[in-house]
Write a structure and sequence with these properties.
Strand order of the largest sheet: 3-12-15-14-13-16
Radius of gyration: 48 Å
Oligomer: single chain
Structural class: alpha+beta
Shape: rod-shaped
Distance between the termini: 86 Å
Largest sheet: 6 strands, antiparallel, barrel
Mean pLDDT: 85
Strand content: 35-45%
Low-confidence stretches: 396-403
Order of helices and strands: HEEEEEEEHHEEEEEHEEEEEEEEEEH
Length: about 400
């Protein structure tokens, strides 16, 4: 019985041992797996070559066209408006010296005639008093020779006060005549310059008093645009007062989209307003455009009307030996990612001269021909391997967005 139990127990143990040895032998027969080096992923990026060059700085601004000279025409005399010019309408053009309004002048012509009569009477009185003064002097000389007197004649005896009074009356009459003639001339309101009627405030048949406004006009010889500039842009513009006074201010190109078409005008900066705006902290400069309405020839393809909102590009100084790159390459304030000779990323600290919404100008930190990564990468690390194609041209790079 015991022998049977021993055989029943040993058989499973033997089978388990043989299976274990067989499994170990089969495991020993497997070849060792080949080891492979895992390479980090290589990213595809766009690059641009650093190319030092001379760049003309352009400062952008916006403003509204306004007239340099605007006038409220006022009647200097009272009366009924008897005539108006065909150009005396809102939007009407006129030339310097044109008659715009005539006021009834009958009373004023009568006043001139009375003043002329007063002058003639005063002149007659002066002639009479001068003659009487001569007679008085002759009489005194004759009496003194008879009486053999050395006594000097008084002014009253020689009628000098009477002659002086007559001369004063003549001057008064002449001054009054000049005033009356001036009032008569003022019944005709003439254009003070080449311009346009902005607003008509009186019309034919209307009675106006002295001091009444009859129209608002402006000159079409020169238009102005006030352009706000932040202080960071001022170092790039030549705004010296002496240069502006000589007419050598920066050139300005104005553009406006009108009716779906873009129109362009040229002007120049003629002055600054001299103080910073307290609320916006900008300095206003004034650009001028000559003959905005093409009154003296076809200078512009489209008139620059008052009130037009325009985009301005002011030509600034020329920067030399700077690298122009897309604004997107700048990380933080002064860092860009470059591609080394072994095609890995490396950050470089640079000195930025100027930035705008599209580009950045770098004057130090990049060497000529160095490759700059222009692709926006999330959390790049130094030494990251990259691959790239043909370097982009600057024109292409300026329009790049994020990848």
């Amino acid at each position: 019985m015991s022998a049977f139990l021993n055989r029943k127990f040993l058989l499973p143990v033997a089978i388990l041992g043989v299976s274990t040895l067989l499994a170990a032998w089969m495991f020993m027969q497997q070849p060792n797996p080949a080891s492979m080096e895992v390479l980090p992923p290589t990213m595809l990026v766009d690059v641009m070559r650093a190319d030092p060059q001379s760049v003309q700085v352009t400062v952008k601004a916006q403003g509204t066209v306004i007239p340099r000279t605007e006038t409220t025409l006022v009647s200097e005399v009272s009366g009924l408006i008897t005539e108006v010019s065909p150009a005396f309408v809102s939007g009407g053009f006129f030339s310097k010296g044109d008659v715009l309004v005539r006021i009834d002048d009958r009373n004023y012509r009568a006043e001139v005639k009375r003043a002329e009569a007063a002058v003639a009477a005063a002149e007659t009185n002066v002639t009479r008093e001068a003659g009487l003064a001569d007679y008085a002097r002759e009489d005194w000389e004759r009496a003194r020779s008879i009486l053999q007197s050395s006594k000097a004649a008084s002014d009253l005896a020689l009628r000098k006060p009477q002659l002086t009074e007559a001369l004063a009356s003549l001057e008064f009459a002449r001054a009054d005549l000049e005033k009356r003639r001036g009032d008569l001339e003022r019944t005709v309101i003439r254009a003070p310059y080449d311009g346009m009627i902005r607003e008509k405030r009186a019309d034919l048949g209307q009675f106006v008093n002295a001091g009444s406004a009859v129209a608002v006009t402006f000159s079409v010889g020169v238009a102005e645009v006030r352009l706000p500039l932040p202080d960071k842009e001022l170092p790039f513009l030549e705004l010296d007062d002496s240069l502006l006074a000589e007419g050598n201010g920066p050139v300005v190109s104005l553009t406006a989209d009108i009716g779906g078409r873009q129109h362009r005008w040229e002007g120049s900066i003629v002055r600054t307003e001299g103080v910073f705006d307290e609320r916006s902290r900008v300095l206003y400069v004034v650009a001028e455009v000559a003959d905005p309405y093409n009154q003296h020839g076809d200078i512009w393809d489209y008139p620059l009307r008052m009130g037009t909102f325009v985009e301005a590009r002011i030509m600034g100084e020329e920067l030399t030996n700077v690298v122009k790159l897309p604004r997107s390459v700048l990380r933080g304030n002064n860092r860009v990612w470059t591609v080394t000779d072994d095609n890995t990323l490396q950050p470089v600290e640079v000195a930025v001269t100027r930035t705008d919404e599209q580009s950045v100008l770098i004057n130090r930190g990049l060497s000529a021909g160095q490759l700059v990564c222009v692709t926006l990468l999330d959390n790049p690390l130094p030494g990251t391997p990259v691959r790239f194609g043909e370097p982009l041209k600057p024109e292409t790079g300026l329009t790049l967005g994020s990848h």
